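Allow me, if you will, to draw on your knowledge of protein folds for a short while. I have a record of one protein: its chain in single-letter code and its fold written as discrete structure tokens. The full record is reproduced below for your convenience:
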Amino acid sequence: MTEIAKDMAVRPVADQSEPMSRDSAFWDKTAEKYAASPIKDMDAYLQTMERTKSYLEGDDRVLEVGCGTGSTALLLSESVGHLTATDFSAAMIEIANGKLAGHSADNVAFRQAPLPDPAIEAETFDAVLAFNVLHLVRDLPEVIRNLRRGLKPGGVFISKTVCLAEQNRLWAIAIFFMRLIGYAPHVRMLRVFDVEKAIVEEGFEIVETGSYPAGRNHFVVARKT
């Protein structure tokens, strides 16, 4: 699932370049382990879900990108009219569809898709969700622009992003060497400022921010202007 309170919640969402094909293969290979790993900070997860639900209406059409194995999409399904959830990893989507088969939600659809996603239709969704995804994309402005296009006027973009540049710089060194040996995909060393700046510059007005858990994952709610 999105499982937005897992350790780094490094998720396989990006463009379709050769490096990203390697990232996709990496996450396909680790999907089952990822799905089985527990949420590290349940309180932070529940806080994020509570704040997210407060912006959703019962008839909303919602898009979640980087949905992982689908647990967050299924959790939110009872709060919206329809939820489309996408992920770059085919193995993640396969697990998500398995969960859907055993769930009562009939308003959820999972599909594999890159980011940016050319299949997103303009002004389709009331809300777009991106939990622990933005630090993985290679062109952050392009991805946010793509997601904004899919929102109806006045729609909300809700994100939660790992901002590793705000933490111990040893993370950057560790991730660099992990990538060299195939143990990590592309990861951006973002600051809170970088995330908020990218969102505002693509035509959003930020209406709420938070940190769940404190000092690690930056939560932003922004409205399409």
About this structure: The radius of gyration is 16 Å. The chain has one domain: 18-224. Residues 1-16 have pLDDT under 50 and may be disordered. The chain is about 35% helix and 25% strand.
